[in-house]
Specification:
This protein is mainly alpha-helical. Helices cover 74% and strands 0% of the residues. It is globular.
């Protein structure tokens, strides 16, 4: 299509989903209450996994939009997971470890995906089945995130809590910090 390879379109579709997700996430994660994090996290990953089922079931090239739908919810996962770490004296260190773990997890998932391909699984079904294999680990991990203790008194003295912001509060925040946000 337009001189680009099918696999290029798959990558573009998924990256566009991630990009759109970041704009949606400003509102969704910005307004999120702590008690809804786990259900939203599981819901977003579930939606992205169902999109992989659509990718497997719909023939190419008509399955390209399913990778957009896969990337759309996944783009908010980092913000959700990071919200469990916010407000602590060690947030930055834990954030660096989290980023490293995402990079390492990506390599592990690619290895499992390659193993599935070597077992004869088609390249269209491999992403969905790979997600299925990691489902138990996902459930255990979300359970563990939910058990992280809240910031302690020392954390609260040194850090400001991140409170949910409605539309008016977000706009005021953006107006106040617009020069810095624009530079980023």
């Amino acid at each position: 299509l337009f001189g680009a390879d099918y696999k290029v379109w798959l990558v573009v579709a998924q990256v566009l989903g991630y990009m759109c997700s970041k704009f949606i996430g400003v509102r969704v994660i910005g307004e999120l209450r702590a008690e809804r994090r786990a259900s939203l996290l599981l819901g977003l990953i579930g939606i992205s996994w169902l999109a992989l089922l659509g990718f497997a079931l719909v023939p190419a090239p008509w399955n390209i939009p399913f990778l957009f739908l896969n990337g759309l919810p996944l783009g908010m996962v980092w913000g959700l997971v990071f919200s469990y770490l916010e407000g602590r004296r060690t947030t930055e260190a834990m954030g660096a470890i989290l980023a490293s773990s995402f990079i390492m997890a990506s390599g592990v998932v690619k290895s499992v995906g390659k193993w599935l391909l070597l077992q004869g699984v088609s390249e269209f079904w491999m992403p969905f089945l790979c997600g299925l294999l990691f489902l138990p680990l996902l459930l255990v991990s979300v359970r563990m995130l939910e058990r992280i203790p809240a910031p302690d008194a020392a954390d609260l003295r040194e850090r400001s809590p991140r409170l949910p912001m409605d539309r008016t509060q977000r706009r005021a925040f953006v107006r106040r910090f617009l020069p810095g946000l624009a530079l980023m």
